[in-house]
Amino acid sequence: MGIPSTASGLPRRRFLSGLGASALVAGLGSAGLAGCGSNTGRPGADSSSSASGGTSGGARPTLSQWYHEYGEDGVEAAVKRYAAAYPQAQVDVRWNPGDYDKLASAALLTADVPDVFEYGNGPTLDMIKAGQVVDLTDTLGDAASQFSKPVLDAMTWEGKVYAIPQTVDMQMVFYRKSVLEKAGVAPPQTFADLVAAAKAVTTKDMGGFFAGNDSGVAVLASMLVWASGHEQLNADSSGIGFDDADGYAAFAAYRDLAASGALVKSASADWFDASPLTNGETAMQWTGLWTLPDVQDALGDDFGVLPFPAIGANGRPAVPFGSYGSIVTAKGKDPEAARAFVKWLWVDSEADQVDFSNSYGTHIPAKPGLVPQATKIATGAGAEAARFVDQLGHAPSKLFTPALSNALTSALTRVITKGADPEDEIGKVAATARTEIARAKG
């Protein structure tokens, strides 16, 4: 589900696939996040509505549940319908326009907390360390094995699960089959293949690869890390995990692509809109799963999808994803009743989980076993996207703070635009990381 557009035209939630809530603002680069919704109602304004299904059988606890404002038609009615069907409590759904992350974080510091709320890729490390959220490991129990492991891992800290994933968004490479075939090149399996293919298909009218009007820096900085075979942080989370020859080479490889003439640096729309691909400005584009219906309508069967390809000898293909998770607050009116509701909705009620992913935009159920029931992604490119997430998916570490994310994108920008040395620039990121990680760990 998207949400109201930002100033740049990109629904805020879609940034979660790859950036994560903690890096949401800092990782946007030139796309920026000037606003989180078209409504500008005052923070804390009463937008709640009762989702009670009646009170037969005696008094039931009353719970409050918060959502951010999704952009697709029907989402608000759907989540209120789900809540109304819950027999064990009256669940009052509050729909929150505006800067939801700020509103939710601020509410947790007050006595008037929501009992259940959603947050991008689960709660922040600050929320966990402050004891503001409930450990849901036992609530999930054996059902943990039903969820995509990378997605559930994003909701986990030090072996404890703090949120139940609701649905998943992701990003990947879309390519025009006929254009690659005409040039005699196969769909790229490595980054070197992608560069070669981009050069082979580039003409005066069509570019080879497009990942954004900032040369792809905002969305691909972490992808270069993951595709080079590294994680954002090292094994003991004391520093970054890509301050080595493979990391330097990945930055250098992308710099070389940017200088080759095959990277489209300016298009009619930014990376999150498939128009550059569908109108023939580029043969390959990095964009999100949410564009799949537009691509299908425009190109029919003349497209394919790929993960970001492996970079270097130690690389691996990878994709980023994002998922809002349902969280129980520790200071709520009845945390046990809230845990039971979250389990009922996001673990047990699979028909609602499929509806939430499939009926309002194009998304992936958090449980791989439900993908065949989600008709928009059950086959073809959608099924491939679901497989990419489950097998190749990455989300930012909770220790990868906004300041650290900004340092990474700034470093890549200097490498591409100023010819800066990748080793020097990654060294600067490493220095920032030492400070940021120490601060975040407290």
TrEMBL record:
Highest taxon of the lineage: Bacteria
Write down any Gene Ontology CC term: ATP-binding cassette (ABC) transporter complex, substrate-binding subunit-containing
Q: Does the keyword Signal apply?
A: yes
GO BP annotations of the record are:
maltodextrin transmembrane transport; maltose transport
SUPFAM superfamilies linked to this entry? Periplasmic binding protein-like II (SSF53850)
Keywords, sorted A to Z: Signal, Sugar transport, Transport
Entry's family note: Belongs to the bacterial solute-binding protein 1 family.
Q: Which PANTHER family match?
A: MALTOSE-BINDING PERIPLASMIC PROTEIN (PTHR30061), MALTOSE_MALTODEXTRIN-BINDING PERIPLASMIC PROTEIN (PTHR30061:SF50)
The name of this protein is: Multiple sugar transport system substrate-binding protein
